[in-house]
Amino acid sequence: MSSSNPDPIPPKILDPQRAFDITYLLRLWFGFKEPVSRIAYISSGFVLMLVKYLVEAAIIALSTGRYYLPWDFLNPLMSVRQKYFAPPAPDWMAWAVILWSLPFLWIAVSMSVRRAVDAGRNAWIGLWVFVPLVNFFMMIYLCGIESQARPVGDSSIDRTYREPLIDHGLTSALKGLAASTMICIAMVSLSVYLIQDYGAALFMGTPIIMGAVSAYIYNRPYTRTMFSSIMVAELSIFLSGLILLLFAFEGLICLVMLLPIAGVMAILGATIGSMIASLQPQHSLTLLIPISLLPVIAGAEHAVRVVPEYEVLSTVEIDAPPERVWPNVIGFSELEAPPSWYFKLGIAYPKRATITGTGVGAIRHCEFSTGPFVEPITVWDPPRRLAFDVQSQPPPMHELSPYRYVHPPHLDGYLMCKRGEFRLIDLGEGRTRLEGRTWYAYNIFPQSYWTLWTDMLIHRIHLRVLSHVKKLSEQR
After folding, report:
1. Same domain, residue pair 32 and 146
2. Predicted confidence pLDDT, tens digits, the chain (476 residues)
3. I need a labelling partner for 69 at 20 to 30 A (CA). Which of 40, 179, 206, 369 fits?
4. Same domain, 202 and 241
5. Do 280 and 343 reside in the same domain of the chain?
6. Distances from the Cα of 228 to the Cαs of 264, 278, 375, in angstroms?
7. Residue 82 domain-assigned (yes or no)
8. Pick from 259, 278, 305: which residue ends a domain?
C-alpha cells in the first residue's frame, strides 16, 4: 500500500462479495472479534434498522390495521410507540415485538463496542447504546470516526491493516451480561406471566444466579479481581432492570424498590461465581444446572405458599372530644393538603371519604387517587369505634414508566387490604387519641423485605387521613 495514499479501512471490509457471505455477516453481527469499520457499521445499521421497521410495521398492520409511522419507530419516547400495542392489538403482539427486538439490541451493543475499538477509542463507550436518546448521538459519533491504521514492523509509513483485538475482560463481561439478562427475562416470563407468582425464587434466587453466571463467565479464561466481578454482576442487574422498564414488563417504582435486595443477592452470586471459576473451572454447559433449578423452586414455592396477614397501626392526638371527632371519621371532605412527593410518583393516596347509610351494613367509600375503596361497615359504636371490611379496592399505584400505560400483574390481587378500623379513645380534658388500623395480606415474597415498604406506605396513608381528621375536628 502506498504511503502517499494510506487507506486505513481494510479492503476485506469493503469487498461487496462479503455482503452475501452469511458466515461473515453472523460474525460481524453477533461475534466478538470481527472488526467493524465505518462502512460495515453504517451499512449494517441502516439495513438492519430498515428490516426491523418493516417487520414490525407488517405485524402491526396485519394485527390492527394501523400504519406504523417511521418517525414513531425512531422516536426515543416509549409512550409514542405504546399506542400501537393498545386494543384492538392482540396480547401476543407485544411479546412478538419484544422477542424480535432482542437480537437487534445485542447487535447494536456488540457492533458499537467493536466499532469503538476499530477507531482506537475506549471499547466501553459502546455500552452507551443502552441509554435511550444518548444512543442516537453515540451511534452518529461512531459512524463519523475513521478506523485506526495500525503500523507493522519498523516502518512508520506502513499502514497495513491489523484486526483490532477487544480486551478479553470486556469480551467476557459482555458474554456474562448477555447470559444473565436472558436468565432474568426467562424467569420474569415464567414466574410472573406463566405461574403468576412473585416469589423468593424470582427476587432472591434469580439475582444470585445472574450474579454467579455473569461473574463466572467474566472470570473465563482469566481470573479477574473480585471487585470487577461484582461490578459486572451489578451491571447485569441494572441492565436487566432497564430492559424490563423499556419493554414495559415493569415500572420504575417497583424496580427501585427491588434494587436493594437484588443488588445484595447479586454480590453473593458474584462471590460464588468468581470462586468456582478460580478454584475449579467447569465447562460452560454446567451453568445450566443452577439455572434449571430456578423454575423448579418457583413452582414448588407457589404450590406450598401460605399468605399471612399483617397489621399497621397509626395514631394521632386531637384537641377535641370524641363526639366532635366521630363525624369526621365516618366521612371527611376533600383533603386540602397536597400529596407528598412519594405520592406524586404514582403511589395511591386518599382524597375524600363518604358514607351511605348509618350503622352496621352502611357502605363507606374512601376515594383514592387510583379509585375507590368500598368498605361495608361491620362495627358502628359511636363515638368509640368504627370497623369495616374491604369489599373492593383500586390498584395500589400508577406505575412510573416511559410508557403512558403500564399495568404489571402485581398491581392486581397481590396487595389485598382485608379490613380496617378507627378507635377513638377519650383522653379527658376534651382530647382524643385517634387510632387507625389496616389489616392486609401481601402475596409477594420474601415478605420480610417487601412488607418494610408496604408498612411504611400504609402508615403514610394513615397519617394523611388522621391529620386531616385532626384538622377538621379542631376547627371551631
Report:
1. yes
2. 444 444 444 444 444 556 567 888 888 888 767 888 889 999 998 999 999 999 989 988 888 888 888 888 887 655 566 677 766 777 677 667 877 887 887 788 778 878 888 888 876 677 677 666 777 888 899 998 888 755 444 333 333 333 444 567 788 898 999 999 999 999 999 999 888 889 888 998 899 899 989 998 998 878 889 999 999 999 999 999 988 988 878 888 999 999 999 998 899 889 888 877 875 555 666 677 778 878 888 888 778 777 888 899 999 999 999 999 999 999 888 888 888 888 988 899 999 999 999 999 999 999 999 999 999 999 999 999 999 999 999 999 988 877 767 778 888 889 999 999 999 999 999 999 999 999 999 888 888 788 889 999 999 999 999 999 999 999 86
3. 40
4. yes
5. no
6. 15, 14, 54
7. yes
8. 305
How far apart, in whole angstroms, are the C-alpha atoms of residue 433 and residue 470? 10
Closest CA to 36 of 159, 142, 172: 142
- The pTM assigned to this predicted structure is 0.68
What CA–CA distance (Å, rounded) separates 165 from 157?
22
Task: Measure the CA–CA gap between 104 and 349, rounded to whole angstroms.
Answer: 41
Number of domains, the chain: 3
Other residues' Cβ atoms within 10 Å of the Cβ of residue 294: 20
The half-sphere exposure of 70 on its side-chain side, counting CA atoms within 13 A, is 4
Number of Cβ within 10 Å of residue 234's Cβ equals: 19
Asked, for residue 171, whether it belongs to a domain, the answer is no
Q: Got the DSSP string for 207-273?
A: HHHHHHHHHHHHTSSS---HHHHHHHHHHHHHHHHHHHHHTTSS-HHHHHHHHHHHHHHHHHHHHHH
CA–CA separation, 207 vs 449, rounded Å?
15
Does residue 315 sit in the same domain as residue 220? no
Residue numbers of the domain that contains 210? 188-305
Q: Are residues 137 and 212 in the same domain?
A: no
Residue labelled with grid coordinates 495514499: 5
State which H helix or E strand residue 325 sits in.
helix 322-330
Q: In this structure, are 136 and 225 located in the same domain?
A: no
